[in-house]
């Protein structure tokens, strides 16, 4: 027992410590062997394929020298936000005596900013809670979930006790100071509240919430992410996903996981480690994964180009705003083509072509600029086989920067560049000639989960910021669209507000998925439903309004849950 206690304590300290670096690693041998090989302070097991390794690091200023592969280094994710029930067919379902689906005995799990469990929208009539679990990764004073080393888990019994006490936060101190998680949970699964003219899509579903802790400082510094924005690291997201899956297995109930975060890091083709994990569990019976497209279509954060055989190079121009302490830039080329890059600073100082190599790290300083550029080439990126160049601009001089792109070996493949998601930078940093397609944030490019764009249900138009498909590899995404513009929903403090964003569209879809899982599994109409089955019905039943489908904005159409059930008559 003492050995287990020592391990738990050591792992908790490592996971939370700002002096410990976190990375993904393939399972090789026993955990003891891996601990010795990596000289690790702790190793968390994700699944039989992946682990998270935690290692003490003495000098974060030279982190690029630790030789992590691109895919092993955790990405940082931000939040995807800033009459609808009738529109998506929920009220029609409730008016059908035979159906009248409300999400009963289905869990909807969220990985987000937490939940205001005291909100009336999540209470039963007897003042007990519809929130069955909270894993608050930010509170270290209580007991972590079984098999996890950090944070505090609160059960329904504890939440009910809190609701019936004079000071609920003395019993369950978990809150949602941001309001994003509360809003999404309310849209997907809030109570029917006639007084405030509100209902969630699945008002009898069980609710589970993973409240994410903020990313470690070394990751914020590495990606140059501002201190005043919400930022979450991939390791915590993947463990939150694992927790919700374990909860569904423990309780023997179907599960919908609603994700409200996204990132521009990665190949935009669903090849990341969290992407792979979400894709794999999407195949499990009784599991449905719902993801947003992100809000990057109008941010100026993506560029697509090609160097023609008649050209030696082309220049990609980036406007860098004042006050930008730094930013990252990702360059991707589909194999077998190879490109190389150089740079031109705002003052005209030119950095010549950097020859591509299998693994090359370069640090570039300028004579007339305070800027330092770190360039990491992977001509054969481990997970995709494509060329990837990861570029970090430290202290960039404001003005027009040029990335000079040279054709080395081209088979008429375009190249793509992505800046970070908008909230990670100032509003004045963007591509001069952006390309609005292929702007779905990861993990929304993952093939099997349901990826949802946001539309305006008042006029059937797409939300201007809604990420557009397809994926970099050409797979059709998004799958469908759902309401996400000026949506009325609950916020902390028993009040309501209006919000827009693709995570809100994902919340509508998550609630609709719970209704389908209730019909299929809880009511024993089909025991084998998973994400693919739910997605197929949603696509078949989607509204298609005045355009060609599928397309890069709406996917296969607009969510219509009544239409999904109606499509069963044709099967």
UniProtKB/TrEMBL annotation:
One of its GO terms (molecular function) is serine-type endopeptidase activity. GO terms for biological process: proteolysis. Residues 103-296, 439-557 form the Peptidase S8/S53 domain. The active site is at residues 112, 180, 503. Keywords: Hydrolase, Protease, Serine protease. Pfam families: Peptidase_S8. It comes from the Bacteria. Belongs to the peptidase S8 family. This is Peptidase S8 and S53 subtilisin kexin sedolisin. It comes from Lachnoclostridium phytofermentans (strain ATCC 700394 / DSM 18823 / ISDg) (Clostridium phytofermentans).
């Amino acid at each position: 027992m003492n050995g287990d206690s020592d391990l738990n304590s050591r792992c908790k300290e490592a996971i939370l410590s700002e002096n410990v670096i976190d990375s993904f690693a393939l399972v090789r041998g026993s955990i003891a062997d891996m601990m010795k090989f990596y000289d690790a302070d702790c190793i968390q097991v994700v699944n039989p394929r992946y682990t998270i390794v935690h290692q003490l690091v003495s000098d974060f200023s030279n982190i690029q020298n630790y030789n992590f592969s691109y895919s092993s280094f955790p990405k940082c994710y931000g939040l995807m936000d800033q009459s609808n029930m009738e529109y998506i067919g929920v009220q029609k379902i409730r008016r059908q005596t035979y159906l009248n689906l409300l999400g009963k005995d289905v869990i909807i799990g969220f990985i987000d900013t937490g939940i205001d469990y005291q909100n009336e929208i999540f209470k039963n009539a007897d003042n007990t809670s519809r929130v069955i679990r909270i894993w608050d990764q930010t509170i270290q004073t209580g007991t972590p979930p079984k098999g996890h080393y950090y944070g505090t888990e609160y059960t329904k019994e504890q939440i009910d006790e809190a609701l019936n006490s004079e000071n609920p936060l003395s019993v369950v101190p978990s809150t949602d100071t941001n309001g994003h998680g509360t809003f999404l949970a309310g849209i997907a699964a809030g109570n029917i509240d006639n007084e405030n003219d509100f209902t969630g899509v699945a008002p009898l579903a069980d609710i589970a919430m993973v409240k994410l802790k903020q990313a470690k400082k070394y990751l914020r510094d590495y990606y140059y992410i501002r201190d005043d924005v919400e930022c979450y690291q991939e390791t915590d997201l993947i463990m939150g996903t694992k927790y919700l899956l374990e909860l569904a297995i423990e309780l023997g109930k179907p599960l919908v996981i609603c994700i409200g975060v996204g990132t521009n890091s990665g190949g935009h083709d669903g090849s990341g480690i969290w992407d792979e994990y979400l894709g794999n569990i999407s195949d499990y019976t009784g599991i449905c994964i719902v993801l947003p497209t992100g809000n990057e279509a109008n941010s100026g954060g993506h560029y697509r180009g090609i160097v023609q055989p008649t050209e030696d190079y082309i220049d990609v121009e980036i406007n860098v705003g004042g006050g930008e302490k730094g930013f990252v830039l990702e360059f991707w080329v589909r194999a077998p083509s190879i490109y190389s890059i150089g740079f031109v600073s705002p003052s005209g100082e030119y950095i010549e072509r950097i020859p591509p190599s299998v693994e090359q790290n370069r640090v570039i300083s300028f004579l007339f600029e305070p800027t330092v550029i770190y360039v990491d080439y992977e001509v054969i990126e481990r997970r995709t086989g494509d060329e990837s160049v990861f570029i970090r601009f430290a202290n960039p001089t404001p003005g027009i920067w040029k990335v000079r792109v040279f054709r080395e070996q081209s088979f008429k493949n375009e190249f793509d560049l992505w800046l970070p998601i908008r909230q990670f930078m100032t509003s004045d940093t963007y591509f001069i000639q952006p390309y609005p397609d292929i702007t779905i944030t990861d993990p929304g490019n993952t093939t099997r989960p349901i990826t949802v764009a946001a539309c305006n249900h008042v006029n059937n138009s797409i939300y201007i910021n809604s990420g557009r498909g397809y994926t970099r590899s050409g797979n059709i995404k998004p799958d469908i669209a759902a309401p996400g513009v000026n949506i009325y929903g609950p916020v902390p403090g028993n009040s309501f507000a209006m919000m827009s964003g693709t995570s809100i569209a994902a919340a509508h879809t998550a609630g609709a998925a719970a209704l389908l899982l209730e019909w299929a599994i809880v009511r024993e109409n089909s025991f084998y439903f998973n994400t693919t089955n739910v997605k197929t019905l949603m696509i078949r039943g989607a509204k298609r309004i005045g355009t060609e489908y599928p397309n890069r904005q709406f996917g296969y159409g607009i969510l219509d849950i009544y239409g999904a059930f109606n499509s069963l008559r044709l099967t």
